[in-house]
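Lecture notes, part 5. Sequence design as translation. It can be helpful to think of inverse folding as translation between two languages: the language of shapes and the language of residues. The source text, in structure tokens, appears below.
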């Protein structure tokens, strides 16, 4: 299976972290720059897919069809908007044309298990505010970090990275069933930084320490996993 992992474009939360104090994380939109980044990622994906040529049709030996991956998207607003931007340009070589595209996407579906890590009551708070408002939980979190165990420490009313990895792994069953039952062997996953790192770690069976050292992907970067081989970033985004 060939998997293209795309982080969402720059969000308003990336521009101003204080927005998390007044707005729920799932409702935060892309910035204007993020919209442009999504369209640029679509052009890169379209160019890359066109270079792969056609693929065999399983049901009809000897026939071939254009490579059209299924797109799986986190249902957060910023990831939906990123998917919109990708779809607007992925079938083009010279940018958007008012929505008339020769899309290289088979279809687009959402998966709840691809959402961002839930930061719970820590969401939008500074380190100092976390320590003041939730001293016991913050002390536990900091203890884990001192032993390179940030992966295990949950946020109050939120998730640890361990829990994100668990739910991402549950989503793999959907992708494997698609491959076995419907011949979907190429997918685009539009998600979030921590979620995508957990995806790579679980798909490639890497140790939990890997995620502590791995940098967060840049906005609209594209990472390729090809037949369980990490090909790295084919587009750095940002």
């Amino acid at each position: 299976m060939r998997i293209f992992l795309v982080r969402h474009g720059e969000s308003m939360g990336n521009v101003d972290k204080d927005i998390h104090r007044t707005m729920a994380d799932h409702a935060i939109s892309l910035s204007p720059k993020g919209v442009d980044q999504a369209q640029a990622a679509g052009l890169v994906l379209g160019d890359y897919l066109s270079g792969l040529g056609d693929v065999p049709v399983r049901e009809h030996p000897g026939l071939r069809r254009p490579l059209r991956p299924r797109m799986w998207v986190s249902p957060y607003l910023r990831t939906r908007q990123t998917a919109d931007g990708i779809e607007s340009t992925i079938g083009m070589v010279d940018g958007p044309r008012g929505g008339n595209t020769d899309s290289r996407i088979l279809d687009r579906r959402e998966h709840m298990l691809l959402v961002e890590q839930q930061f719970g009551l820590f969401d939008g708070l500074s380190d100092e505010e976390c320590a003041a408002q939730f001293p016991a939980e913050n002390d536990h979190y900091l203890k884990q970090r001192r032993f390179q165990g940030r992966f295990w420490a949950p946020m109050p009313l939120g998730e640890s990275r361990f829990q994100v990895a668990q739910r991402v792994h549950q989503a793999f069953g959907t992708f494997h069933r698609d491959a076995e039952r419907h011949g979907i062997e190429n997918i685009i996953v539009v998600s979030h930084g921590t979620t995508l790192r957990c995806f790579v770690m679980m798909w490639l069976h890497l140790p939990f320490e890997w995620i502590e050292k791995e940098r967060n992907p840049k906005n609209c970067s594209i990472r390729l996993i090809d037949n369980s081989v990490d090909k790295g970033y084919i587009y750095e985004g940002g």
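The translated text above is only one of many valid answers, since several sequences can fold into similar shapes. The longest strand covers residues 229-235.
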